[in-house]
Structures are given as C-alpha cells and as structure tokens.
Design brief:
The chain is mostly helical. It contains nine helices and no strands. Among the domains are: about 60 residues, no CATH class; about 30 residues, no CATH class. The chain is about 65% helix and about 0% strand. Helix 4 crosses helix 5. The longest helix is centred in the N-terminal third of the chain and has 13 residues. The N and C termini lie far apart (about 80 Å).
Length: about 140
C-alpha cells in the first residue's frame, strides 16, 4: 500500500478537526430515528445537513444502517401493545383474520361464466340475466 501524499495527509487533518460526526450528534440521530423521524427531521434535530448525513452513509454504511433500523422501534412497541392487549375471543379472532387471512378470514368465493363468440350480439334479455348473475340474485 502506498504512502499517503502530503495533500492527503493535510486534508485528513483538516477533516478531523471540523467533523460534526461526534458521539453527541450520533446520539441525537439515534433518538430521532427511534421515534420514526424522517431523515430530514433527524438531520434537523442533530444540527447537520442532509448532504452530510448521506456523505457519512457513503463512508460508513454499517453505522448508518444501524441508525436507520431504529425507525422500527415504534412499530415493535405498537405491535407489543397490540398483542398484549388482546383480551377475549372476538379480539383474538379479528387479529388472526388480519394476520393469517388464508387460515382465518371470512372469504366469499364468486364464480361466474359467460360464453360469447366474437361477432355475436347480446340481447337485452341476456344482458339482464348476466347482470342478475353478477349481482348474485
């Protein structure tokens, strides 16, 4: 590996002194993301520009991904409240109808068939019959 040039060394020193990527800034981002803030809101709260956030994301994708995963916190809290609040058969059934539709939902199956050939015209009687079948009468 080649030794850094003089310019690269100077640029690195300049960047180290003025970086806003401090533990306090990262804590503010964590707090904002843990209440499901948007990136715009989190950056405002942390006192950084969105472009700075995206630059950090390019340089350190793992840390920034971990921050963004914190946005799931409120969803998990809500899910915990929901599941712990299920009391009684009706509430449990409603939950299962939504979560396991294939197994627990009330399904209505509608079947109908219409035979038409291209070029055939439909009489008014046939139209009425089709309408009634579609309505389930």
């Amino acid at each position: 590996m080649a030794r850094p040039t003089k310019r690269e060394t100077i640029n690195k020193r300049i960047g180290e002194g003025v970086s806003k990527k401090t533990p306090e800034t990262l804590d503010k981002l964590r707090n904002a993301f843990s209440i499901d803030s948007t990136i715009e809101e989190a950056c405002f709260y942390a006192g950084i520009q969105e472009s700075t956030y995206y630059n950090w994301k390019k340089k350190d994708p793992k840390t920034m991904e971990d921050l963004e995963k914190l946005r799931l916190t409120p969803i998990l809290k809500a899910r915990t409240e929901l599941v712990s609040g299920i009391v009684g058969f009706d509430n449990a059934l409603k939950y299962l109808e939504r979560k396991r539709k294939g197994e627990f939902s009330i399904r209505q199956e509608v079947e109908s068939s219409v035979n038409l050939s291209v070029g055939e015209s439909i009489t008014d009687e046939e139209k009425e019959k089709i309408k009634k079948e579609l309505k389930g009468e």
